[in-house]
Structures
1.
Amino acid sequence: MDGWMDGWMDRWMDGWMDGWMDGWMDGWMDGWMDGRMDGWMDAWMDAWMDAWMDAWMDAWMDAWMDG
């Protein structure tokens, strides 16, 4: 009985730990990747929008001043 219980407990604990660690690591990785991607996308969009708005404003001001 002891051998059977030990084997069962070992398997149950290993399975539980593996599942818990997988879930935790997946969650952590997902969160970390989401954060990195969000930051990268935000920075890229900000830079692109700033450049586009600056160019548009410059062109508009030039046209207005010339007109």
2.
Amino acid sequence: LADAAVDSGRVIAPLGRSMRRNMSMAREMGLLRIPDSALIDVEDVDRHEPGKVLVLCTGSQGEPMSALTLLAGQENRWLKLHPDDTVILSSHPIPGNEHAVTKVIDNLFRQGVEVIHSGVSDVHATGHAKAEELKLYQSILKPDWFVPVHGEYHHLVAHARLAETMGTPHDHIVVAEDGDRLVLDDDGLREIGRVPAEYVYVHGTVGGVGTGVLADRRIL
């Protein structure tokens, strides 16, 4: 996207703390090669022609306080959308996030914005490494011990099996779940039991129960 923006004569405005941080790190590592003149602060967007700006922001999964969610809700302090703007969501909704993503899309449409998403166009770009990329990572790091993280249990098992094919001994791989206690010391890595890690329902605060809490109780 950054390369396409530069090639088409657009400037790039990163919006959101994590987006700014990640772009800065990518440039320092030489992964993002764009001239300084192509980057602007989001506060300066209105100083440029609308058709000459690309805003890169977080929030394609409808996260509550993300830049895109705030933009869709007209709550972003730095930027306002206009009917001639186009918003591209380059991701599929993660299972369970469908409602949040749909709400963001609806709020964007309410502002008259053109919205392009994976439901209408092939714009999905995965943020997850593929097997060959994970193998490359393993070959570079050559870990003595390995604990796969992120994803459902079958994802963890698949990652553990991949690590074994790359030379990590079977007894040096731990597939852990939420609540498992692990100790890493000079003797290696081992499990030492579990702690409670289930979801905890918070039923409100002293002084009254809000409408959101009541709605949650009705669902339960």
